[in-house]
Structures are given as structure tokens and as C-alpha cells.
């Protein structure tokens, strides 16, 4: 049974605190193993990649067959159902359109002292995209990770995807093709992350690695961080639905299950102001579970991590709870979702109103589906174009400009005991005729 | 002697590669010790903070004296030299002005399908600012870390600063006061990071921790990352000066030393197109070192990690080298710095022209002085207002909107084997009269 919490009960604060801090994932300690894999790839390059791929993916590769060529991509794409390809195209076009609005502008101005100031943005040079193999190999994630990089102007996007026992989802290759990715390697695991970070004879290193992966991939990304950039380490998926009694319980129940079906560690929470509605949703979940193909996973997630919280008044009481949960996905299935949204600070993405199920955002809405999990929406954002760009600030002084602001720099540098700092400014000031 | 590299010599590629990958810092393994400190603070709260502070800072505290009160801040500020306070005010005003331009705008629009899309930004709720004690206790860093948080609208900024043997730089408290920080604790090290991340009886936890620190602080920040956000882990400072022969060698030499004086692990590199100028700068460095107060540190940094690279043509040859070095600070002391800057992709901050020494950016220019080190300018940016905000995307469909884009979501969800995703959309579609 999912937990039932009542905001008006005496033990609510404690139980809600428990919900916030419950650990959902067993953390595997794979650090040592992964560090060894990375060291091997750094030392032996392609040969190590080939050995690890033989061992873990049961695939015999050579340096020449590490890469998946254009013919293989085309053949895979030709195998895909045309309707699915059309849906992929629609999704890609909408994702691109949304992300294009994130491209930042240059700032370049002279201030009142005549000092030129500004900031400009450039794309990361080369990005590696990790795509999991097996059942978690989602073409939608290829779009969500690759398209912001493309919109940012990243010149080289490299994809790695393991092909255990030779299996590879053709839609993943079709999605890569739609994103214009031409450099694809059939490798995975920590060895693929190491190859992207340090390079091998065949694979040139990248500057940043993004994309989801299992515990080995996550550990490898942590270990190579610094040598390259990484995206955040994603935890299991979460949804928080705030719903009043005017919703169809079957709809809300399916929304809760759409996160629960991802993973037994996923978490679905409902906040409502009506006990009878809460009961109706719980019953609808049980009904849906009778027919849902992934009922085993979804049911376990719902029983172990699901929760229903009842409050007196949604607008008054829900926002504070939402902010503490800081959910990855927040669905506001109420009459006036904007009023509620305006009171919420912490959420990765918000789905407004009764006709906006979270799943629409997983595929075709346009905003990114890579979002902060495990309460990290308190301090971080979903994947976006800025993750594939970096800002360089600039300053330009002429003699008048340094006369205006230089003396204060000299004073502060001296106060901090950094005389070369002070002198590097003072030398220009004395050339410009200012005493310091 | 600093390394001398000639871009036209046969061994240049190898030697430049060596410069790129030379390790400048001995990495201390403090992980286990720090994990123990964090566990103690989580278990025993204030009592652990007080014990660690007695042991390492030789200070006897109580829960009541952990906090530095307003009277102590005022008294410290009153001790400061008025000219220095005025310089601090000028710096603060300029930093605020520059950072205010970074505050992002809301996006909120309806697309061609009538789907409402957008993104809004909210400030991180509470931020902890670590300020080192002792000689690295810089008031300028208080401004650079705290003011972007204030501009972002962070409601609670908490400062921690150790006071070993009771020592505390009064200018640090004056800087905190100028930034409007009223919650300050006299604690440091891993224990202070743990208190900020997990909270104690006296200190409420924060959502994100920023600010420089020693190896213990850096290790603690890595360990609490995920529970809270952190800024990037800063490495030793770096400057790359690109200068033609028309510069005064004494100015360029002082600019190189202004980074070298930070730390024996700091790195200063000159790229020039004139051998005689290179010699003149090297000689000027040696002359400056005869009188510079921090000559021992600056001299060792210059000898161990400094380098002078000569190339044939600055505009043609320097940008590729700059991009590979991806320096924290890039000074372009040439006639037309914009032409060179336009060809550079990777740099934390650029200082344009002969009258813009890097030190002006450390204090008063306005852009942030917390910048990516150790070649991470390839994939990351300096500290800025967005580091204290997070983006929440939103989607709103009405029945017409979901009819327009829902069928593609159903198709993709089914292709990925996620039936609850498909059904959560399909339920709305059938209510809206669309077959799926």
C-alpha cells in the first residue's frame, strides 16, 4: 500500500519528513571496479574497449568495427515503422523549437566610467552522449540530449551505445540520424565513458559527457568529472500530482503509474484536498494495474514509494509541501493551475491543468525531459541549451577607464596583501598620470 | 626557469601537450577523514561543531557563541580603514550592476498548436557561503560569491568563516555587511560544510554551498553534493597573457606575477611573437621578484609552472593554443584584442588591450572573479546569477492542444514499451474525441 498522510493529523510533520528522506535506491559500490576500467582504457585504448565489450556485451569488435557506419544507421532507420518515425520527427521539431529560445545573447556595453564590459557565449567543442542499451534504450532520450547540443552549436556530438548480444533498438539509430549525429560507437559502460573522456586511438576525446546510465556509468561520470564536464547524475523518476476532486480518478491514477512504470525505485505522490477522491484514485490505480503490461514494476514502485497526502486547502497548503518535495515533475490538475504554480518555487517541470499529463512532456511538448531528481530541483534545472555553452566575460579599459576604477583595485589588492595585483594596476595608472 | 616553447620547433607539439597535462597540485587524500567529520556533525550537531572547532581552530564556543552577531560585525567594520571601505563599496556597486544584467526573463508563449510553453526562474531558497580563514580570507571573494546570490533574490545567505586562534579579518565582516549578510557562524573546515548541508540545532540547512576552501572543504563539498548543490571545485589560479612586442615588458611581467603570487601551484603563461620581447619579460619578472613581498611564492610558481611560448603570428597561431589551454584568465595585450578574442572559444574571462590588467577583474571591473580553472573553461563558466537560480519549464494543453500533439506522444510511448505513458495521454484524447 502507498503511504497515506493527512496534513491535519498530529504525526504529519514527522511522517512527511520521513517521506522526504526515504532512500529509494540501494547504492551499489562500484567505484573501485569502475576506476580500474577507466585506468585500463587510458592505458590500452581501443584494445581495452574491445576486451571489455567482449566480456560484458559478448560482442567481438575490432578498431574498424567499433564505429556504427552510415549504412547501418540507414538500414536501421528503414526498418522503423513510418508512423513512429513521423512521431519522432514531430517531437524533434518541437524540441528544437523550444530550445532555440534558450540561446543566450551577447552583452557588450560601456558603463558610466567608460569601461567596456560584457559576456558572450560559445558552444562546448565536443559532447559525448551516452545512450543505455537494453530496455532503457529510449529514442526520446536521444532527442532530448542531442538536440539542445545541436541548437547550442556543438560542432561534434559523439554517441556511444552498447549492443549487448548484438541487440540495438533501431529507433535509437533513427533518432541519432534525425539529430544529425554521424559519429556513433557500439560501446557502453564505464569503458565508453573513459573512451569519451580520455580518447583512444579511434575515438577522440570530448569536452563534456551527458546522458543517463546505470550505476557503472554514473560512477564513471563522477570519476572523469573535471577532466570533462558532465550533466547531473539522474536518480529514479518522480511525479507529484496536485489534484482536486473534479478530476477523473482514472486519469490521475494513470499519471501516477506513468512514473511508477519506469522503475521500482520511481516515486509517485498525490496531494489532494478530498479523502473520497484520494480513495477513488487509489482504487483506480489498482484497477489499472490489473491490465498494465509493466504492472509488476509499477505496482512495486507504488506500494513501496507511492504516497497520498490529503490537505485542507490545495492553494493554501500544497505549495509548501511541493517546495519541500521539490519534484522532478509537478502536475497541477486543478481549475486554476497558474495560481498554484505562482506559489511554487521548487519543481523541475510543471504540467498545467487537467489536459496536460506529464507524459506529453516526455515526448512531444518541447521542454526537456532530463530534469532534476531527488529534491535537486531546489538548486538545479533541467537540461537545456546553456548546458552545452559556456559564458566568457570580458573587460576592456582604456587609460581613462583604468583611471576611473583602478585606484580602488589598488587599495583592495593592498588590503589583501597581494602586491603584484596592486602593482599591475598601478603601473598602468602611473603611465596614465594617476598617483597611487 | 619557466619553460620556453617555440611553436616552430619540431618538439613543440609534445612539449605543449606536456604543458597541458602537467599536474600542478599534489592531491591530498582526505576523503576518509572528511567523511568521518560529516558523520559526526550529522549525528551530534552543534556539539560536534564545538568539538571540532576547539580541536582545529583552538576556539571554545557554545551554541550561543557560534554565531557572529551584528555588534561584532559593526565593531569590525568600524576598525577598517575608510579608504578601503570606500573601495569595497565601489567594487560592490560595480559587481551588482554587472550581475543585474544576468537576471533571466520568463518565457511564456502559445505555439502554433495552441500549446502553452515556457520557462520561469526562481532563486535558490538558501545559500551557504564558505569563506576561508587565515591568509586566504579575501573580502573581494565575499563580494563575488554573495552579490550574485543577492541579485538572484536568494532569501537567506549564510556565511561560515573559521577564526583560528580567534583571528578574523575585519574586512571580511565589513564585506559581509555590505552584502547584507546577517547570519554568520565562526566555523570552518569540513564541519562547517556539513552543518550547512545537514543543519544542526543552531544552523538551519541550506540548498546550495559556494565559496573557495582548502582540500578538506573541497572534499566535504564533493561529499555533500546531491544533498545540496555546490559550485565547481576551484583549482589553483591561472593566467595566459597574449602580448605583442609593443607592450612594456614590465607591465606584462607584473601581470604574470599577479597570478603567480596567489599560490606556488598557480600558473602564468605568456604567448608572444617576438623572442626579444620574451627575453625582456623574463628579465622583468626576475627584476620584480627582487622586491615583491610575496616573491617566494610567486618565484616558485613561475619557475615550476610558468611558461613562455613563442609563435610566428599571434592572430594566426595563438587562438588554437589558447583554446587548448582554456585559461581561467586571458589577457590580450595587443593592438586589436577584439580580432583575437573573436577567434577564441575557451576562456573564463578575457581582458582586452594593454590597459586592462587581469587584477582589475579581481576587484572592481564587475564580472565575477570566480572562474573555471584547470582547463574547465572548455565546458563551464564563471560564477553568475544563474548559479543561484533554477529554471522550471511548463506546459499547458487544452483539449485542442492535446489533440494536436498527443497522438505522436502515444505512438512514441508505445514504441518505447511504456504503456502507462501512452494511456495517460490516450485517456485525454478519447475524452477529446480522438481515436488512438
UniProtKB/TrEMBL annotation, chains A, B:
<feature type="binding site">
    <location>
        <position position="262"/>
    </location>
    <ligand>
        <name>Zn(2+)</name>
    </ligand>
</feature>
<feature type="binding site">
    <location>
        <position position="259"/>
    </location>
    <ligand>
        <name>substrate</name>
    </ligand>
</feature>
<feature type="binding site">
    <location>
        <position position="421"/>
    </location>
    <ligand>
        <name>Zn(2+)</name>
    </ligand>
</feature>
<feature type="binding site">
    <location>
        <position position="191"/>
    </location>
    <ligand>
        <name>NAD(+)</name>
    </ligand>
</feature>
<feature type="active site" description="Proton acceptor">
    <location>
        <position position="329"/>
    </location>
</feature>
<protein>
    <recommendedName>
        <fullName>Histidinol dehydrogenase</fullName>
        <ecNumber>1.1.1.23</ecNumber>
    </recommendedName>
</protein>
<dbReference type="GO" id="GO:0004399">
    <property type="term" value="F:histidinol dehydrogenase activity"/>
</dbReference>
<keyword id="KW-0520">NAD</keyword>
<feature type="binding site">
    <location>
        <position position="416"/>
    </location>
    <ligand>
        <name>substrate</name>
    </ligand>
</feature>
<feature type="binding site">
    <location>
        <position position="262"/>
    </location>
    <ligand>
        <name>substrate</name>
    </ligand>
</feature>
<keyword id="KW-0028">Amino-acid biosynthesis</keyword>
<feature type="binding site">
    <location>
        <position position="214"/>
    </location>
    <ligand>
        <name>NAD(+)</name>
    </ligand>
</feature>
<keyword id="KW-0862">Zinc</keyword>
<feature type="active site" description="Proton acceptor">
    <location>
        <position position="328"/>
    </location>
</feature>
<feature type="binding site">
    <location>
        <position position="421"/>
    </location>
    <ligand>
        <name>substrate</name>
    </ligand>
</feature>
<comment type="similarity">
    <text>Belongs to the histidinol dehydrogenase family.</text>
</comment>
<feature type="binding site">
    <location>
        <position position="362"/>
    </location>
    <ligand>
        <name>Zn(2+)</name>
    </ligand>
</feature>
<dbReference type="InterPro" id="IPR022695">
    <property type="entry name" value="Histidinol_DH_monofunct"/>
</dbReference>
<comment type="function">
    <text>Catalyzes the sequential NAD-dependent oxidations of L-histidinol to L-histidinaldehyde and then to L-histidine.</text>
</comment>
<feature type="binding site">
    <location>
        <position position="259"/>
    </location>
    <ligand>
        <name>Zn(2+)</name>
    </ligand>
</feature>
<keyword id="KW-0614">Plasmid</keyword>
<dbReference type="InterPro" id="IPR012131">
    <property type="entry name" value="Hstdl_DH"/>
</dbReference>
<feature type="binding site">
    <location>
        <position position="237"/>
    </location>
    <ligand>
        <name>substrate</name>
    </ligand>
</feature>
<dbReference type="GO" id="GO:0000105">
    <property type="term" value="P:L-histidine biosynthetic process"/>
</dbReference>
<dbReference type="GO" id="GO:0051287">
    <property type="term" value="F:NAD binding"/>
</dbReference>
<keyword id="KW-0560">Oxidoreductase</keyword>
<comment type="pathway">
    <text>Amino-acid biosynthesis; L-histidine biosynthesis; L-histidine from 5-phospho-alpha-D-ribose 1-diphosphate: step 9/9.</text>
</comment>
<dbReference type="GO" id="GO:0005829">
    <property type="term" value="C:cytosol"/>
</dbReference>
<feature type="binding site">
    <location>
        <position position="362"/>
    </location>
    <ligand>
        <name>substrate</name>
    </ligand>
</feature>
<feature type="binding site">
    <location>
        <position position="130"/>
    </location>
    <ligand>
        <name>NAD(+)</name>
    </ligand>
</feature>
<feature type="binding site">
    <location>
        <position position="329"/>
    </location>
    <ligand>
        <name>substrate</name>
    </ligand>
</feature>
<dbReference type="Pfam" id="PF00815">
    <property type="entry name" value="Histidinol_dh"/>
</dbReference>
<dbReference type="InterPro" id="IPR001692">
    <property type="entry name" value="Histidinol_DH_CS"/>
</dbReference>
<keyword id="KW-0479">Metal-binding</keyword>
<dbReference type="GO" id="GO:0008270">
    <property type="term" value="F:zinc ion binding"/>
</dbReference>
<keyword id="KW-0368">Histidine biosynthesis</keyword>
<dbReference type="InterPro" id="IPR016161">
    <property type="entry name" value="Ald_DH/histidinol_DH"/>
</dbReference>
Amino acid at each position: 500500500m502507498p503511504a497515506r498522510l493527512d496534513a491535519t493529523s498530529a504525526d504529519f510533520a514527522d511522517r512527511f519528513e520521513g517521506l522526504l528522506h526515504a532512500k529509494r535506491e540501494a547504492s551499489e559500490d562500484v567505484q573501485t571496479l569502475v576506476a580500474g576500467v577507466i585506468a585500463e582504457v587510458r592505458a590500452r585504448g581501443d584494445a581495452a574497449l574491445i576486451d571489455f565489450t567482449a566480456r560484458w556485451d559478448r560482442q567481438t569488435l575490432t578498431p574498424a568495427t567499433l564505429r556504427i557506419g552510415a549504412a547501418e544507421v540507414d538500414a536501421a532507420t528503414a526498418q522503423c515503422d513510418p508512423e513512429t518515425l513521423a512521431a519522432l520527427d514531430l517531437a524533434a521539431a518541437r524540441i528544437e523549437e523550444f530550445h532555440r529560445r534558450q540561446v543566450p545573447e551577447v552583452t557588450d556595453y560601456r558603463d558610466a566610467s567608460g569601461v567596456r564590459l560584457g559576456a558572450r557565449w560559445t558552444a562546448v567543442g565536443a559532447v559525448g552522449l551516452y545512450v543505455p542499451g537494453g530496455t532503457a534504450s529510449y529514442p526520446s532520450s536521444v532527442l532530448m540530449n542531442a538536440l539542445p547540443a545541436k541548437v547550442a552549436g556543438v560542432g561534434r556530438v559523439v554517441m556511444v551505445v552498447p549492443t549487448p548480444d548484438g541487440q540495438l533498438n533501431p529507433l535509437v539509430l533513427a533518432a541519432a540520424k534525425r539529430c544529425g549525429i554521424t559519429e556513433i560507437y557500439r560501446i557502453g559502460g564505464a569503458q565508453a565513458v573513459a573512451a569519451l573522456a580520455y580518447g583512444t586511438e579511434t575515438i577522440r576525446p570530448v569536452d563534456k559527457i551527458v546522458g543517463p546510465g546505470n550505476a557503472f556509468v554514473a560512477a564513471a561520470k563522477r570519476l572523469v568529472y573535471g577532466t570533462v564536464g558532465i550533466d547531473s547524475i539522474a536518480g529514479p523518476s518522480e511525479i507529484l500530482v496536485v489534484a482536486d476532486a473534479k478530476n477523473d480518478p482514472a486519469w490521475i491514477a494513470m499519471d501516477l503509474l506513468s512514473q511508477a512504470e519506469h522503475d521500482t525505485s520511481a516515486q509517485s505522490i498525490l496531494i489532494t484536498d478530498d479523502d473520497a477522491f484520494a480513495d477513488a484514485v487509489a482504487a483506480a490505480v489498482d484497477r489499472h494495474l490489473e491490465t498494465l503490461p509493466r504492472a509488476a514494476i509499477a505496482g512495486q514502485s507504488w506500494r513501496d514509494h507511492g504516497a497520498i497526502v490529503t490537505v485542507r486547502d490545495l492553494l493554501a497548503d500544497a505549495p509548501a509541501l511541493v517546495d519541500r518535495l521539490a519534484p522532478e515533475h509537478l502536475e497541477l490538475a486543478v481549475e486554476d493551475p497558474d495560481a498554484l504554480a505562482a506559489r511554487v518555487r521548487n519543481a523541475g517541470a510543471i504540467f498545467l491543468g487537467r489536459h496536460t499529463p506529464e507524459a506529453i512532456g516526455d515526448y512531444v511538448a518541447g521542454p526537456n525531459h532530463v530534469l532534476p531528481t531527488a529534491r535537486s530541483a531546489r538548486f538545479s534545472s533541467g537540461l537545456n541549451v546553456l548546458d552545452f555553452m559556456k559564458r566568457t566575460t570580458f573587460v576592456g579599459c582604456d587609460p581613462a577607464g583604468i583611471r576611473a576604477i583602478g585606484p580602488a583595485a589598488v587599495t583592495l589588492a593592498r588590503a589583501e596583501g597581494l602586491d603584484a595585483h596592486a602593482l599591475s594596476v598601478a603601473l598602468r595608472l602611473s603611465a596614465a598620470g594617476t598617483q597611487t
